[in-house]
């Protein structure tokens, strides 16, 4: 940023200061060094330069209430660019909205500033008041994001997240091509997946579709959080190769996301599953397998099948029965992974969502109703991963040792840390 020393009309100086503030925030959104401290330091330097540009506006050009409001807003906005709360920024932004209550951008900045202070309800009041001045996609997105934060401590988190989805959708109706609004909707659906028990993969599919729409906006291609969250969705959809590719892309753009750790954990899990599946010949794990599976009674509404008879995807009207050979410990909270074998000695993996870890144990006989089957087949870093997998989303899909699981085996898995922004 360079500071002009020439005499410029007051309006031009305000335009120049506004452009400097916008450039500052663009820098913030696209600068991701290895060290967070380096990022804050650089932001502070750029912020100081923007303040110098703002100070070139003569006092006589900021005497009228609307001029003064704009000046206070820009000063507060520039000061608030750093991640931590600054009282000085709040003071300037508060002055701006008092001088001009219709200055919607100032309400947006004030809400963000107060949010950093930890006063979430006051921040929400700022966004809500700004919306009373008229529809605004930026305000709606911030309100949607704030509601997801509020849901973490709410007695009714599902309802709060539903409000977040509603506001995210409203933002899109105002500008259907805005990538950030689509990204925000993807985040809302992903949060809904977590707070409702981390089992409803339809929410994941809605999230993925929103992220794909976001990627069509050129300016979103430099947003590492989009790649990270999209990779997270693919992880829970068990699109392992896409997830690994996404985590690596996010890590290259912003090392501070720690996305390489997510990729590492996934590879460790896949290697463990591969090792357990290749240990198929352990006789003691297979003793009396066929006879024990043959005695299971099934409802007439289900046709018994083995893994090699299943189609890719949902198999309505079918049931498969297997013995749990191994529990594969996983660093993530969900899902739980088990290696099973059916009566034909076909080995497969089940990934279990929304069910407590003590519901299924090694040695148990597990019946899966209407199994959702897929064949995982991809290479990563020169290693081939191939295995059959069945996804289990809720307790009603499972019989353990011939018995239904009780409702207390259902579990809500809230994993807010998995979501960025």
Automatic annotation (TrEMBL):
Domain Tetratricopeptide repeat protein 5 OB fold: 301-413
UniProt xrefs under PROSITE patterns: TPR
TPR repeat ranges, renumbered to this chain: 104-137
Keywords noted in UniProt: TPR repeat
Protein name per the record: Tetratricopeptide repeat protein 5 OB fold domain-containing protein
Family matches, as Pfam families: TTC5_OB
InterPro entries reported for this sequence: TPR-like_helical_dom_sf, TPR_rpt, TTC5_OB, TTC5_OB_sf
